[in-house]
Amino acid sequence: MHAEITAYRGRLIITLLTDHSVPGEVLSSQDNPRFPGHVIYDTGRHLGVSKEALRLLRTLPTSNEEASDVNWFEIDEDKPMFFWRGGRYAIFSPEYCIAAMEFKIRKHILIPNRVPDGAREQLNVLPHAHKPKVGLLSGIPL
Known about the structure:
By secondary structure, the chain is α+β, with helices and mostly antiparallel strands. The protein has three helices and nine strands, in the order E-E-E-E-H-E-H-E-E-E-E-H.
């Protein structure tokens, strides 16, 4: 598995588990700084998602455009892909995270909701954030 999506305090936590791109499995900004995020290929084999995170993913508003904060899409029917903007650790609130128009829950590995300690600590000290008028990464009006 190359990435995990978990949930804590109503937010999605996406964690890249590898330090670099893996040909045919992961495209990462870790070793390609011009790329705006990360792509996990064949999510049925390489992406773990908790039940708690699935509930939040189903609530994401979708854009009418291809630009987005997250996308779960298919190019090849047997190998869906998941993309997110940002770093190897990303925390998104469903209130202001925008999914691409073709976003849909696809094949994945069901995992326990093991929230990384750093994300848990960060969310425990932050007050409730006010909803912005535009997506933080995509800039799309909400």
